[in-house]
Each structure stands twice: as structure tokens, then as C-alpha cells.
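Action item from last week, closing it out:
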Amino acid sequence: MHLNLGLVAIIITLLIIVGAVVTRRCVEFMIAGSMVAAILLYGKGFLAGWSQSLQDMLAENVWVMLVCLLFGGLISLLTDSKGSFGFSKYISKVCNTERKTLLTTFIMGILIFVDDYLNVLSIGTCMKKISDKQKLPRETLAYLLDSTGAPVCVLLPFSTWAVFYASLFYEQDSVKALGVTSAMGAYLKAIPFLFYPIITLVIVFLFVMGWMPKIGPMKKAYQRVEETGMVYSESSRKYNHENPELDDDGNIWNFLIPMGVLVAVAVVSGDILSAVILALIVCFAIYVPRKILTVDAFLNSMIRGFGDMLPTLTMLLVTFVLKDLSGKMGMTEYIIQLAEPFLFAAVFPAMVFILGAVLAFTTGSDWGMSSIITPIVFPLGAALGANPILIMAAVISGGTFGSHACFYSDATLLAAQSAGVDSMEHALTQIPYVIIASVLSVLCFGVVGFVL
């Protein structure tokens, strides 16, 4: 029965994906899918089971929820203090063409590498109005944010992603057999073979420079801007109720000081939650005494910012519930059992990438997927004689794909929120580029698997 439930969980996930793509109603399909999963798991007690999962996921992911809520408050304060207007006014002198704007966004995405949440949310805050001034589709901004989030974080050994994966891999016997003296030493060996993030960044750079064509829904987004002047569609209007006009009185320091504190504290301490809280305290210290905002206006702005994050947080919470219930149905184990007969040494890294990508996409969990498959694929790879360095790279690449490609992963949802665009529109506009990168990655892992 456990195996059958795993198959049913896959079917439920596929139906959610198809339904969400067709109707553009992601939250509704995910709630319905999680309810069906709860019915199959708990029978008549499905509502209690679903509610318990909701409580458990909220408790386990309270850090993510707090970071997102407080970031929403910070973004609102930067806007209401006119600090973001001041930044936009200044930086728009540099970003005076479409290419310069895209290139600046891309470079900032590489520089803010410590964490994908920090990357996506802070750069979206910085570049949204500047992007609008150049009449770039918001879908393009979301694509750049998403594509320089996790892909950049895994390529640099100073990020939260690197620390997570390094500690995860160093426990494996086949990795220790490489003779590395530290977890990060093992991680460094995998970096040159992180094909998916490397190829993704190359594609983004080509896109930014105008050398990669606009494909499918992305091309339609550019056509919409040309025909209507609207940088976002009607379905994204609900994410864009703020005044889009730049303010001549905006002071850039009202933006740079809190954002500088945010990034500096996050980099030094590695604690993004504390960094956001400290940035909010700095906002209070420089806005209220100078009467830029009254105490009431400050608190009201924060609360409105919290409210702006609620659609994204709702989606995230439902994603966590669906992931939890799918895990209890045995979906991950079922997919692994299906894949095992097709594995042999030369193609093993390519198959691990595909397996990790499929699991991360269907569950919406990149780190969770990696934690589950790591103790399985490394001993199996050792038995087959596959290269453990390539296995490490394949697991990381698969997790990066999930974070980047899954339309209900936290990174995709936050990139859409930060850019002020509907999450399904963002997912569909970037999917052609994701497919190109993933196909090329499979080919690279296949070729290198035969060579090493």
C-alpha cells in the first residue's frame, strides 16, 4: 500500500501542476491536492490530519515566515520614507538603457551571494522601479532575481547553501575517501562540475546582453509592454498597488543605510533574521527622529508591508503542507525505486541530477530532497564505481534546479513577490530557459561521467 500511495502522490502532484498551469490558480489546486492527500492518508480523520500538518509546518518553518514578513515591512518602509525613490533616482542615471539596467541587476545578483532569500528580496527592492522606468517587463526582473539566487549561492563557498551541502556530503564515506580534510574542501571539488547553475548564469548573461532571444511567454511579455506600456499584466495588478512615480524629494541615504546594515550583518553573522530586525531598528532611528515618518506612520507602513507578503506566505505554507503529506505517502521513495534499475556508473551522475531535479520540482523542497537522497545515492554510487565528486555536483545541481524551476518553491515565489508579478506568470516565462539549461546539464553530466 505504501508503494501505491507513492504513485498516487505523484499523480496528485502532476494534476496540481497541470491544473495550475492551465487555470493560473496555483493556491487553489495546491490546497485541493493536499486535502486529497490527507483523505488518502487519514480517511475520515483527514481534516484533523491536514490541520496537524498545517500546524507542524508552520512551527518548523516559522523562521522563513518571520524573515518574509519582516522583509515585507522593510520594503514598505523604504518606499514610504522615499528612500527607494532616492535610490532609483540616483541609480537610474547609470541604468539609462535596457541593457545597463539588466546588467546592473545581474551583477548585483552575483555580489549578494550570501543567501538566496537576501539576494532575491533585496535586489527586487532596489531594481523594481528602475526596471519599470526602462519599460522592462516585470517577468524579466523576476527571471533575473530567480536565476541569480540559488545558482549564485551554490557556486560560491561562502553562502548558506554551501555550508548546508558541505556538511551534508562530508558525512559520506565515499566523500571522505577523497582525502579531503574539511567539509568545505569537499565542496570546493564539486564547484567546477555544477553544470546547472553555471549554464543558468551563462544563459542569463546572454539574455542580459541581448544575445539570447526572447522565447515563448517571455516574448509575449515584451510584446505586451510594446503594445500597452504595462510592465505587468492584469493578473499581477494586485501585487502593485503602490504609487509607481519617482519622487524628486527621495533621499538615497534613507535607502542605503538600512540596506547596507542588512547586507553587512547578514554577511558577517550569517543570520538573516537578525539582520532584517536590525535594519528595521535602523529605519526607526533614522526616520522617526527626523520626522520622515511619525511613529504611527512607521508602524502602519510595517503592517501594510506584512500584508503585502501574505499571498506569498500562504503559498509557501500550503507548499510545506503538500511536501509533508507527499513525504508521508512515500512519493520520494517510490521515485527512487523506479530510477534504481536504470543506474550504472558512467551515467549515474546524470541520473542523480535528473532524480534530484524531479524530486525537488515535485516536492518544492530543494534542501529536503538533498537530505533524503544523499544517504542513498552515495553508497549506491560507490558500489557502481561512480565518481563521488560528480555525485556531489549532481545533487547540488538537482537542488538548484528545484529551487529555480518549481513554480511553488520558496525562491520562485519570493522572486515573483519581489518583482511584483504573479508567480505562475514568472514560472511560465522562465521555463523555456530552465529547460535549455537542464537539457545541457544532463548532456554535460553524461559526457563527464564517461570521462572521469
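Closing note: Confidence is low (pLDDT under 50) at residues 243-248.
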